[in-house]
Amino acid sequence: MMNADACSGRTLAFLGDAVWSLLVRRYLIESGQGRGDRLQALAVSYVSAVAQAEFYRQLHEEGFWTDEEEGWYRRGRNSTAGTVPKNTPVQIYRQSTGFEAMIGALELEQGRERLLTIWDKVRTLKEVSS
C-alpha cells in the first residue's frame, strides 16, 4: 500500500483531483442537481482552480486544517508544474494544486471520514455563498 510520504506533491495532486471530482459528481447526481450542461457548470463551481483555492483559504482562516494537512497542502503548492492554464493566475493554480495534494494524501492515508468532513464543510460554504 502506498502512503502520502512516498509521493511527490504533483502525484498527490493528480490523485486528489480525481478524488475531489468524484465526490463532486456523485453529490450532484445524487442530489438531482440537473443534467448534462447544467451538471458540468455546477461541477466546475467546485473543481475549478479558483473554487479550490477559495475553499482552502476560507477553511484555513477558520483553523480547520490539521498540521499534517497543511504540510500536504504546502507540498502540492510548492511543487513545480509544467504548465499553468492560460486563464488562471499562477498563485491560484498553485493553491488549488495544494488543495488537491491534500485531498490525494487523505485518500492514500485512508482518511475517507476526513474527506467527507471536508466535503460537508465545502458544501456548507457553497450554500452560504450562493
Write the layout of secondary structure elements.
Elements: H1 9-30, H2 36-47, H3 49-61, H4 67-78, H5 90-108, H6 112-129
Helix pairs in contact: 1-2, 1-4, 1-5, 2-3, 3-5, 4-5
* Helix-strand makeup class: mainly alpha
How many beta-strand segments? 0
Please indicate the percent range of residues in DSSP E strands (runs of 2 or more).
Answer: under 5%
Q: At the fourth CATH level, what is the homologous superfamily?
A: Ribonuclease III domain
Helix and strand pattern:
HHHHHH
Radius of gyration: 14 Å
By CATH, the architecture is named Orthogonal Bundle
- The oligomeric state is single chain
Whole-Å distance between the termini?
A: 40 Å
CATH domain class: Mainly Alpha
> What is the CATH T-level topology?
Ribonuclease iii, N-terminal Endonuclease Domain, Chain A
Q: Which regions are unreliable across 5 or more consecutive residues at pLDDT < 50?
A: none
Write up what this structure looks like.
With 130 residues, the protein is an all-alpha fold. The chain has one domain: Ribonuclease iii, N-terminal Endonuclease Domain, Chain A. Helices cover 74% and strands 0% of the residues. The chain contains six helices and no strands. α1 (9-30) packs across α2 (36-47), α1 packs across α5 and α3 (49-61) crosses α5 (90-108). The mean pLDDT is 91.
Quick overview of this protein structure:
The chain has helices at residues 9-30, 36-47, 49-61, 67-78, 90-108, 112-129. It starts with 8 loop residues before the first helix and ends with a helix. The chain has six helices and no strands.
